[in-house]
Amino acid sequence: MTPDEALAQKGPTDGFLCPLSANTYGLDFLEFEIKDYDSGESIFHVKKDPEAGLPMLPDDIDPEIEKAVRTVKYTFPEKFLRFKTVRTALVFSVGPEPVPNFRMIERHYFKGDLIRSYDFNFGFCIPGSTNSWEAIYGVPEMTEKRIMDLMDSPFEMQSDSFYYVGDTLVMHNKAAYSYQG
């Protein structure tokens, strides 16, 4: 799948569009945080031991295990749906090869309909480096009806995250979201 095809996706994908072995650059996510930009309140933070490295998993991994490894289930407070601006911070490491034009396209769907689309360019990443990246972006305003629909439909908000080096898909992960009052 090319970046243009990812940007044209109308709904969440069935399964994963590249094997785990496509990550030939050794990209590894070490830390991720989501905050309300206006208040500074952190609503999600995860940090991996940087010495742990990437797990070694076979290409013929059981589909249910692969789904568990590559899918994150988030539970956010209702107020997240009312944030005007979100700040995300990511720390990731790069393997021994240079990574030209690292890019992430993330598509969010609710009950199969596209709600949000993000396209982030990380640019060039030095071999063997640990990198931090911060994004601050406005969140589309939602109606009260949409907020109530999201609250009443746990994990029906889903996303696909496509990671590219140049035009080559090297990672594909998914997420599902639940919102609680």
TrEMBL record:
Domain of life: Eukaryota
Keywords from the UniProt entry: Lipid-binding, Protein transport, Transport
Domain GMP phosphodiesterase delta subunit per the UniProt entry, residue ranges: 22-179
Entry's Gene Ontology molecular function annotations: lipid binding
Gene3D superfamilies named in the record: GMP phosphodiesterase, delta subunit
InterPro entries membership: Ig_E-set, PDE6D_unc-119_myristoyl-bd, PDED_dom, PDED_dom_sf
GO BP annotations, alphabetical order: cilium assembly; lipoprotein transport
Pfam families in UniProt: GMP_PDE_delta
Gene Ontology CC, one term: cilium
Family to which the UniProt record says this protein belongs: Belongs to the PDE6D/unc-119 family.
Protein name: GMP phosphodiesterase delta subunit domain-containing protein
Species per Swiss-Prot/TrEMBL record: Mantoniella antarctica
